[in-house]
Amino acid sequence: MKKIVALVLIFDLLALLYGSSTLSIGIDEAKIYFTHTNLLYYLTHASTFVFGQNDLALRLPLLILHVLSCILLYLLALKITKTPKDALFSLILFVLLPGSVASALLVNQASLVILMSLLILCAYEYEKKYSFYVLLCLAFFVDPSVMILYLALFFFGFYKKDALLWSVTLILFGLCLSFYGFDTGGKPKTYFLDTLGIFAACFSPLVFVYFFYVIYRIALSDKKPLLWFVMATTFVFCCLVSIRQKLYLEDFLPFCVISTPLLIRTLMQSYRVRLPNLRVKYDIFIQCSLIFLILCYAAIVFNTFLYAFISNPKKHFAYNYHGVKELALKLNEMGIKGVKTNENLALRLKFYGIDSSKTYRLIKLDSAKNSNIKVQIASLQEYYRLERIKQK
């Protein structure tokens, strides 16, 4: 079984390495790299310092965090599921989830939050009490979104009648609120359907429906594991708050994608208690879900090929992560080391060594007319006009 797990991780890593090579730095990633001073800032800077300022070095820390998270999730699944085979299925499902793939490819806090959450859950399930509470305190410094994890553990502490657990998590939750705050401003407006849509995209529609079913089913049972409290608290919190305001769901989805061991355990329990001739519906559900997940995984990793089937390139889900690397290469070939352009594009070009300048102006065009720079990515064509700024 360990050899199969290793093969799954190696295949996933190779696929993600290819996927990361097709992406340019996005504006949110550029802001993290140049303007933020959190843990992710130091990890990405350390990587680019060692391996050079390029896309692979930028995303390498995220890929390493993802592999570590996969290992931890498999260890967690060994405690939650019935057999090592089910633990393997949990790992495969986690690897294939669109939300997991996105967290591994894009520079954001999700990978750190997933890793820290899994460390905490593993420490609890493997009865490492001292490590569990140390990790709870360290999580405070990872990201403000850990307040939802503290809230889930607070409810779990009450459920288990563990005074130490609920009191510690209540204190940490209060510290998070006072130190980081929680945005409740803006005009009240419902984003409930948007929230459900993003959850469905993160899990894939069929898996999301089953995710909701598992929350409901375990809620009616007598025994509720810690992982259920994490996934249920996160989902219910997001749904309730989204009735009034918009949430940054990337801050909360990491606590849901780690629920795959519980999804597999529930599915396999229902599957195994039925006679072979009564498993047809389950077989269809599993096969359809697996096919859809594999297609989503391939679409994300090999996303540039989708431009051949999209009439409007701006509707491509990864459009904002393409083109800048190739544009910087074109400018370097022309001997241009600096341009004046819009703020977002300038920050992204800065990563590839193109600084701001008052000598040249770079303008993005909608067509080839009046352009003198053409950027080609698969079947995507981007056009720019580079012009010298007249000095007064």
Tell me what portion of residues adopts beta-strand conformation. 5-15%
Spans of at least 5 consecutive residues with low confidence: none
Kindly state the number of beta strands: 4
The secondary structure category is alpha+beta
Q: Helical percent range? A: 55-70%
Protein described:
The protein is an alpha+beta fold and 392 residues long. It has 2 domains: 306 residues, no CATH class; 66 residues, no CATH class. Helix content is 64%, strand content 7%. The protein has 18 helices and 4 strands. It has a 4-stranded mixed sheet with strand order 1-2-4-3, with helices on one face. α2 packs across α18, α4 packs across α15 and α11 packs antiparallel against α13. The protein is globular. 39% of the residues are buried.
Please sum up the structure shown.
By secondary structure, the protein is α+β, with helices and mostly antiparallel strands.
List keywords for this structure.
64% helix, 18 helices, four-stranded mixed β-sheet, alpha+beta, 392 residues
SSE inventory with pairings:
Layout: H1 2-21, H2 27-34, H3 39-51, H4 55-80, H5 84-96, H6 98-105, H7 110-125, H8 129-139, H9 146-160, H10 163-180, H11 192-203, H12 205-219, H13 226-242, H14 254-257, H15 260-272, H16 280-301, H17 324-333, E1 338-340, H18 343-351, E2 355-365, E3 373-377, E4 380-388
Helix pairs in contact: 1-4, 1-5, 2-18, 3-4, 4-5, 4-6, 4-7, 4-15, 5-15, 7-8, 9-10, 9-13, 11-12, 11-13
